[in-house]
Amino acid sequence: MSTLTQSNLVKNDNYWQGRWQSAAQRFAVTNPATGELLAEVADATPAQAQQAVSAAAEAFGSWSALPAAERSALLLRWQQLLLAHQDELALLLTLEQGKPLAEAKGEIAYGASYLQWFAEEAKRVYGDTIPAPAADKRILVIKQPVGVVTAITPWNFPNAMIARKAAAALAAGCTFVVKPAQQTPLSALALAELAAQAGIPAGVFNVLASTDAKGIGAVLTKDPLVAKCSFTGSTQVGKTLLAQCAEGVKRVSMELGGNAPFIVFEDADLDAAVQGLMASKFRNAGQTCVCTNRVYVQASVLPQFSQKLQQAVAALRIGNGTAPGIDLGPLIDEAACQKVHSLVQDAMTAGAELICGGQRQHSSGLFYLPTILTGVNAAMAVVQQEIFGPVVALQSFDSEAEVLAKANATEHGLAAYFYSRDIGRIFRVSEGLSYGMVGVNEGIISNAAAPFGGVKQSGYGREGSKYGLEDYLTIKYICLGGLA
Ligand SMILES: NC(=O)c1ccc[n+]([C@@H]2O[C@H](COP(=O)([O-])OP(=O)(O)OC[C@H]3O[C@@H](n4cnc5c(N)ncnc54)[C@H](O)[C@@H]3O)[C@@H](O)[C@H]2O)c1
Ligand SMILES: O=C[C@H](O)CS(=O)(=O)O
């Protein structure tokens, strides 16, 4: 942190109405790799959340009336500032979240790509004219911003999950209030500083860091001034927030938990499959919603695949994300470590075989060794639950029909992956998988041009792509009469 203290991107007050706002209480933000104290951040209260929502409501009229080209230019300026400060932002992100610096830099570029994408989309909010059923009428359809948008975001991508929502909301003409995760507020506050530097007007982008998630969340989902709430996080919390939004019939976007299958057919390029699995499984130490969670390998190629995978996993370097050449950083907190280890122990008790890892790097600390379990089955918690850690749960299958049924046997439906070089199989399996996103011969599928989102209990709404803007717009039908 000492290398950042001179940076004006390290903020410890909250930000709304274009001003840095203190609070009566503060909470500690610590580095998961070392436990060191990074900052003591103002602990926003529900009353302050109401002030922030009011500020967003006050700013909505002028922001939504701004020509789209002007909103676009401001988003692009913000994007340029993120890239100009990519190294500082990445270091801040690694310090508070733990991911390796290279991944953090990638996340800053990824977040910035949504600002660029929606700066362009802002200028393409088109309406319709529709042939009227009567000669004296005309039908017009216009799209307008929904209004004040609130957002609640997770700790695993503390920059990109906010940028992905704010970019679309602001492009549409909405104003925005976000509560980041308590573990990672610094990246959110740095985004606010750069929004101010970009010239985004007061009240348009507002950040409330707090330990009172429930209290702040109640305001962000129930305040009458709020038109929509966009949530990224666990399915369990998503259901709570959905119920709260239902009271006021508010628009919602839900980007929730996952349980991604990764299927390797016997006709796959096994080296490519191993590479894709390593990327999908171990990114952010397995702490992403689209990480592979279950690995199914066709029986005839399981020994060969497993051997290649073990070699790749053995080469992973685990340590403090600020050090060069690190592949795996720490898990976010003690509870995460205990959850991952309990899933591994449960699987072994139930008969799974441990190939490597299966324990913390040291008795203390939040580093969990990259782990391969084989011989897992559907009855095990490691298959049923989202692992959110660096654990590969391997099992074999015989037929395409069998593995498709197993892959779909979950209440989640976010991302799925499979490797095959048979074009007929590629179409059958892509269409047969009950997921919002499918990676074919590819383990990393997220980008701003594509519609990111899930089905079933992984939520609904899409982020990124041309579809992502629709979530922040409402359709108005105008009937012009008396024209005969
Ligand atoms: N689908 C996606 O795009 C996506 C992306 C990232 C993470 N996730 C999911 O998020 C989970 C991990 O992230 P997490 O641990 O931060 O999730 P989480 O649901 O515990 O917390 C997410 C956010 O919700 C807040 N929150 C928690 N309880 C709340 C309440 N009662 N009222 C209001 N806000 C509340 C937290 O403070 C945090 O800001 C995983 O399940 C992962 O799959 C999904
Ligand atoms: O964890 C969830 C994020 O959405 C992951 S990604 O970087 O968008 O794939």
Automatic annotation (TrEMBL):
GO MF terms held by the record: oxidoreductase activity
Indicate whether Cell inner membrane appears among the record's keywords: no
**Transmembrane region positions?**
none
Aldehyde dehydrogenase domain sequence ranges: 21-478
Q: Where is the active site?
A: 255
InterPro entries named among the record's database cross-references? Ald_DH/histidinol_DH (IPR016161), Ald_DH_C (IPR016163), Ald_DH_CS_CYS (IPR016160), Ald_DH_CS_GLU (IPR029510), Ald_DH_N (IPR016162), Aldehyde_DH_dom (IPR015590), Aldehyde_DH_Superfamily (IPR050740), Succ_semiAld_DH (IPR010102)
Which EC numbers characterise this protein's activity in its record?
1.2.1.-
Keywords from the named record: Oxidoreductase
Q: Which family does it belong to?
A: Belongs to the aldehyde dehydrogenase family.
What protein am I looking at?
NAD-dependent succinate-semialdehyde dehydrogenase
**What organism is listed for this UniProt entry?**
Alkalimonas cellulosilytica
Q: What is the lineage of its organism?
A: Bacteria, Pseudomonadati, Pseudomonadota, Gammaproteobacteria, Alkalimonas
